[in-house]
Amino acid sequence: MVQAEPELSVVIPVYNEEENLPGLLEELDRVLADLGKTHEIICVDDGSTDGSRDVLSRLAGRYSALRCLQHQGNYGESAAQATGFRAARGSIVVTMDA
Fold first, then answer.
1. Cβ(74)–Cβ(15) under 8 Å?
2. Cα(87)–Cα(93) distance, integer angstroms
3. Choosing a second label site near 91 at 20 to 30 A (CA), which of 38, 67, 84, 98?
4. Which strand (E) or helix (H) includes residue 65?
């Protein structure tokens, strides 16, 4: 579910998580749908050097709640979280690792 102001934002810093992303987003999407709250998933690619950026682009077409942000370099998990927090629109913000 996506609306202008979701109730819940999940922020996920991503760095070289190409292999983990499809399963993570499939499971997370299922759990969030079961909660019955409007939500968004914000993945912040922190300068990945594997195919994470491409995987996120493909998955954004599959999951309407997914928003993908990108850093041009690797600035660290805290910086990626801060970027996600600034972009979050939900009244509740949750972080998790990729």
1. yes
2. 11
3. 98
4. none
pLDDT, position 20:
97
CA atoms within 13 A on the CB side of 5: 2
Strands (E), the chain: 8-14, 39-46, 66-71, 92-95
Distance CA 20, CA 16 (A): 9
**Do residues 34 and 65 lie in contact, with contact meaning Cβ atoms separated by under 8 Å?**
no
pLDDT digits (tens, 9 = 90+) for 22-70: 999 999 999 999 999 999 999 999 999 999 999 999 999 999 999 999 9
pTM score, two decimals? 0.93
